[in-house]
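User: Predict structure, ligand S-adenosylmethionine.
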Amino acid sequence: MHLPVLLAETIDALQPHSGGVYLDGTVGAGGHAEAILRASDPSGRLIGFDQDEQALIVAGQRLAGFGERVALFHANFDQMKQVTLTQAIPLADGILLDIGVSSMQLDQAERGFSFREDAPLDMRMNQTAGQTAADLVNELGQDELANLIYQYGEERLSRRIARAIVQARPIERTQQLAEVIARATPGGGRRQKIHPATRTFQALRIAVNDELGALERVLPQALKLLKPGGRLAIITFHSLEDRLVKQFFRRESQDCICPPEQLICTCDHQASIKLITKRPITAVTTEIDVNPRARSAKLRVVELIKV
Ligand SMILES: C[S@@+](CC[C@H](N)C(=O)[O-])C[C@H]1O[C@@H](n2cnc3c(N)ncnc32)[C@H](O)[C@@H]1O
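Assistant: Predicted complex:
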C-alpha cells in the first residue's frame, strides 16, 4: 500500500475546512485525499486527478464512502484548468500536487518502473498513451540518450551507458537494461551505494512521463485556479522538480523581477503569492523509518494573495 508522505504537514498547510473545494492533482491511492476530506467534514469537496487509470480505481474504492463530495478524473494534471472549466468547478481553497511515482506503480513489476524484477520496459504512468521506455531506449540516437540520462538522471557515466545501450539494442525488458548498465559501470557497480541502474531508470521515467514539462505547465494554471487566500502545496522527490517549484514560487512572490543590476524597475511584475514555507518542509526521522520514500520529499507551500 502507498503511504502518503508528509501527511500531517500537508493537512496543516492546506487547512481544509467544511465547504472548501480542494484539487488533488496526483490522487494516487487517495491517502492525502482521504485526509483532506476528513479534515473538511461535512461538506468539503475533493476533485482528484491522476494519469494512471489503475490508481484511480484504488482511489475510487477508498473514497467511495464520501459520496458526492468526491469527483475523480483520468487526466494529466496539466489539464487541470480545462477539466475544472468544463466541469464548472469553482475556484479552489487548496491544491495539492504530490509528484512522482507511487509505491503501487513501483511494486507492480509489469509496469516496468523497477529494475528489481523482470518486466517489459514500459514506465508509462498513463498506459493509454505515449512512448514507452523501450521506445526511447531503442529509438533515440546515442547522444540524445546520453543527454537524457545525464540531464534527468544526473548520471556521470551517461555517455558510457548510452554507448552500451546502443550496442545492446534491441532492449525490451527491465533486467536486460539493468544488466547492460551494470556491465558498463566500473566493477559492475558493486562498489556503489545504489544499484548502477538507479539513475538511468529515473531518467527514463522522467522522460517517458514528461514529468518536468507537466510540472512547468501546471504551475501557472494552479495559481489561476485558486481563490484569493487559497493555498498550493507541492511535494517533490527530486532536485530538478524542487528547483522548478522553488524558482517559480520565488518569481511569483516578488513585485519586481528585473535583473538585480537594474536600478529602476521596468517589468511591472506584481507578486501574486506569498511564501508560507521559506524553506521546504522535510520528513522527520520517525516518518522516514516507516516510509523510506519520504527521505527525499520536500513540501513547499504558497498562498494566493488577497486583492
Ligand atoms: C506519489 S503518488 C501520489 C500519492 C497520493 N498523494 C496518496 O496519498 O496516495 C503520485 C501519483 O501522481 C500521479 N501523477 C504523476 N504525475 C502526474 C501528472 N502529470 N498528472 C496526473 N497524475 C500524475 C501518478 O500516477 C501517481 O499515482
